[in-house]
Specification:
By secondary structure, the chain is of the alpha/beta class. Helix content is 58%, strand content 14%.
Length: 185
């Protein structure tokens, strides 16, 4: 790998971070804190690397917060159970793997955070649609142009960067910011 490649990656990531207006992240942090206090649930989902990020962030919400407060945030990454995902993908269609779970597990005022580079994955869009019908608060951490999800969620956290790896890095950065803020509060 050439030093030029490293510098280019670093420049794109730093530009995305320094040019971003952070108020949507503050709104999400306050909403998660209220959900934690009220015993409401936080759901996360994504595909591919974003699915792994959803699992990572769910872990950060559950465990570190419990060490400080005695009780962690009720959180579920909808993308982690292979049996559920393959069953639902086979029986009700891949586009419904997250929304079907939300119909069973979700409740009014719970939170859904979708992670997506493009914002156009059918299963992500369907999850947001169902969450809104349930009365959940919907957020999305998005890259590229934000796709259809940008206007569909209540609060988009949109980094207009045309790079999937940077988009996925930013998902984790936001997740880590939220976890640290929640632990300090």
């Amino acid at each position: 790998m050439q030093e030029k490649n490293i510098k280019n990656y670093q420049t794109k990531l730093v530009k995305a971070l320094t040019s971003f207006e952070w108020s949507p992240v503050v709104k999400l942090a306050k909403d998660i804190k209220a959900a934690w206090k009220d015993g409401r649930h936080v759901f996360l989902c994504g595909n591919g690397g974003s699915a792994a990020n959803a699992a990572h962030i769910a872990n950060d919400f559950l465990y570190p917060t419990s060490r400080l407060k005695g009780k962690g945030i009720k959180t579920t990454a909808l993308s982690v159970n292979q049996a559920i995902l393959t069953c639902l993908g086979n029986d009700v269609g891949y586009e419904n793997i997250f929304s079907f779970q939300l119909k069973t597990l979700g409740a009014k005022r719970d939170i859904l955070i979708v992670l997506s580079g493009s914002g156009n994955s059918p299963n992500i869009l369907e999850a947001v649609n169902i969450a809104k019908k349930i009365g959940m608060n919907t957020y999305a951490i998005l890259g590229f142009d934000g796709g259809k999800c940008l206007k569909l969620v209540d609060t988009p956290i949109h980094f207009a960067v045309n790079d999937m790896q940077i988009s996925e890095d930013l998902q984790l950065i936001v997740g880590h910011m939220l976890m640290q803020w929640l632990c300090q509060e």
